[in-house]
Please model this.
Amino acid sequence: MERVTFLVEDSNERLSCLLNPETVVMRRATGVRPRESLSGLISADRSSDNPLLFTGAGTTTIDLDLVFDVSIPGSSIVSQNVRDLTQPIWNLAENHQRSDRKYRPAVCRFIWGKSWNIPGVISAIAEKLESFSPQGIPRRSWLRLRLIRMQEQPASSLLENEMWSTEEQQTPGSLIDELSLPETPERQKGDLFSDMLGAQPDLPENAYERIDLSAFHQTGDPDQWREIAERYNLTDPLEWLKSLTSEAAGVNGNGTGGSPGTGE
Model:
């Protein structure tokens, strides 16, 4: 005879029941709710029923009544305390930290032969203890629990600990190292920026002035600024002038150089 078993998905632990339940009660609550507003329920004039809201969801619950008894004749149970058998099932309803680093009840599967295999979470549990020994040790337990069915999780879904590193903290430098391109003897770190700067064409001495003035100084015609912009690959001459001016101001502020074009 196959017994009812709870399979814990986080640890693959199997918790078997001592006796199978006599009855299994299944309930379904549809996602139909009365329409409400901030002021309360919405009602229609001359209507005997309140208008309904169809949310498209619902809840399926399974109620089980289980019996555990350590004093059954011929039993191979060693423990004299029935709570040693029921405590693992009780812990499924406790909010412990799970494999996804969240404090929640355990996700388990209600398995009974080949007919029942339902994933869910125990939302409520109650235990009635009786047949106490002279030392106050319970030997019989009537356990009633309610399991809320959950949707099947995709096999390709990843838990949080599989997506992130197991290290508690990661420094920004380590993240940069992971994203950096592999180094080669011909290319070391830091060469990328020097190559980018070296790819820019040489600018004229008067590059920090307006481009029309630069065209006048070079060709004598300020209308030739478009040819200068095309020569030096300037897509936006005004923005380029602002960036160069800000760089020159930073150099002068640090005292490491003079104004461009003056030779000071």
Observations:
- The two ends are 98 Å apart (CA to CA).
- The first strand starts at residue 5 and ends at 8.
- The helical segments are 83-91, 160-163, 172-179, 191-198, 211-219, 225-231, 237-254.
